[in-house]
Design the sequence.
């Protein structure tokens, strides 16, 4: 192959956003190596500038006429662009909330940012991976970086315990996922590219074979771990409670977005002959996640554990869009992940601020907070109410869109279950808001009584303030002014070729038999 053909097959310009992240990562390491700890004051802003540049590069790749690169290994289509953008945005907000937290923990900021950028890189590549080897390497890049971040505050025994649990359960889920995709490799006659696997399985007439069902179940187990879906959620509460709070903020959005991007691309491309089977499995996962996440969250006394079970429940809601299998369903997933990015990271920013000022994350210690810190109270209240789906906040419109897509697809009982569990979730969200706002001065907790003076000019607090205000504004207005986000989500699905055949088949089946059970 001559150079021109090689360059055409590689089409390396498709991964320019990831290339910018790699350059940023190397720059952070080199600057820290040369300047040492003196670079800590501005190295975070350097990383944020690189991530913003990556998002700008993603913008200019929208509607790319030739999105396939590396001989089919990577697909830079519009669906991948949106998910890559969500992951990069979550990394930006995470860095803003990390600067003060990492410095106060006594660990090095540059290494933390370098590992976070590596995790971001893995998530972005996973969102566009179109081949088994690329998928596995991207998944492991994200996973191993996440394990390192979880145990980053190595002097904290809770962080060490969380990292060990995460590593052991994560390694098991990776092994299961790898065994599942290795079966795909064998069933397809030695193919690794997604479309080629589907063609090989169809040609060999393995569409209803036991091997395909086993590979499907194992692949879904790996995806379920990444998106924190019950019953693959065992790591989530312990990791959320023990890991550094900025890390779980990133995992709750960035890792989840990458997992859903992989789910859409892998299931719709590789398993078109087993669509009823994977939809049935995901219905079970969605039911378990919505019920378990919301019910167990009621009994939590730690804010971080409550948000962990909330994250499990939110995964259940998003799965309704995946199960729908329609353009509205996939679009609703993207829209919900966009608004979830802002409202969830807004909540975690408030939790970090409170823990920095009081040293605790117990829900009872938030009593009477509005009398000492109005901005933090407002931010946490808005984010929790939005997560609960209270209008007119962003979360309300996200849930309406997902439930409407599910209803149109005939998932009536699943949507009704989602509505009931949403009402349950409102209770534990409003309980925290009530504790902060309604308590009388004499009912103020000891942590709030000893609350320090609010000073944003202390080192590292200004980025936290910026992150809080930006995510708070976005959470407040993203619902009311949601049309651009709706348009973005719809266009990303409509302009993604591999999603169209499945949606056409779904529409034809519904037209022939509108009463077909789901």
Sequence:
């Amino acid at each position: 192959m001559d150079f021109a053909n090689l360059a055409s097959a590689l089409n390396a310009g498709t991964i320019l956003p990831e290339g910018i992240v790699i350059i940023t990562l190397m720059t952070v390491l080199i600057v820290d190596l040369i300047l040492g700890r003196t670079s800590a004051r501005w190295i975070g802003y350097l990383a944020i500038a690189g991530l913003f540049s990556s998002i700008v590069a993603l913008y200019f790749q929208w509607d790319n006429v030739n999105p396939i690169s590396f001989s089919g290994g990577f697909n830079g289509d519009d669906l991948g662009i949106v998910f890559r953008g969500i992951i990069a945005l979550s990394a930006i907000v995470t860095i803003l909330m990390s600067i003060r937290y990492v410095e106060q923990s006594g660990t090095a900021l540059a290494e933390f940012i370098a590992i976070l950028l590596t995790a971001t890189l893995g998530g972005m590549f996973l969102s566009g991976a179109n081949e088994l080897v690329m998928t596995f390497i991207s998944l492991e890049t994200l996973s191993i970086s996440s394990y390192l971040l979880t145990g980053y505050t190595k002097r904290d025994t809770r962080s060490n315990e969380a990292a060990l649990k995460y590593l052991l359960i994560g390694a098991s889920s990776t092994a299961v996922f790898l065994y599942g995709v290795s079966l795909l490799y064998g069933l397809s006659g030695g193919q690794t590219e997604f479309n080629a696997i589907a063609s090989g399985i169809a040609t060999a007439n393995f569409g209803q074979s036991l091997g395909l069902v086993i590979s499907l179940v194992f692949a879904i187990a790996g995806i379920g771990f990444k998106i924190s879906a019950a019953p693959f959620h065992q790591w989530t509460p312990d990791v959320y409670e023990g890991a550094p709070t900025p890390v779980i903020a990133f995992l709750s959005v960035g890792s989840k977005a990458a997992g859903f991007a992989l789910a859409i691309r892998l299931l719709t491309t590789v398993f078109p002959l087993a669509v009823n089977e994977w939809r049935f499995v995901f219905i079970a996962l969605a039911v378990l996640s919505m019920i378990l996440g919301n019910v167990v969250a009621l009994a939590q006394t730690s804010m971080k554990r409550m948000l962990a079970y909330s994250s499990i429940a939110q995964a259940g809601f998003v799965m309704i869009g995946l199960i729908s299998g329609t353009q509205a369903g996939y679009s609703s997933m993207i829209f919900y992940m966009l608004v979830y990015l802002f409202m969830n990271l807004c909540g975690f920013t408030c939790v970090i601020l409170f823990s920095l000022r009081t040293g605790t994350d117990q829900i009872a210690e938030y009593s009477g907070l509005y009398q000492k810190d109005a901005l933090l109270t407002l931010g946490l209240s808005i984010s929790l109410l939005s997560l609960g789906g209270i209008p007119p906040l962003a979360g309300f419109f996200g849930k309406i869109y997902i439930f409407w897509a599910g209803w149109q697809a005939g998932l009536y009982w699943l949507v009704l279950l989602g509505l009931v569990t949403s009402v349950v979730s409102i209770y534990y969200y409003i309980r925290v808001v009530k504790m902060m706002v309604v308590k009388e001065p004499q009912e103020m907790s000891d942590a709030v009584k000893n609350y320090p003076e609010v000073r944003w000019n202390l080192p590292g607090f200004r980025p936290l303030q910026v992150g809080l205000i930006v995510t708070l504004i976005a959470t407040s207005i993203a619902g009311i002014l949601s049309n651009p986000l709706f348009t973005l989500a719809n266009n990303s699905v409509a302009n993604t070729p591999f999603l169209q055949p499945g949606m056409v088949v779904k529409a034809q089946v519904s037209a022939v038999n509108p009463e077909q059970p789901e």
Remarks:
- Residues 507-518 have pLDDT under 50 and may be disordered.
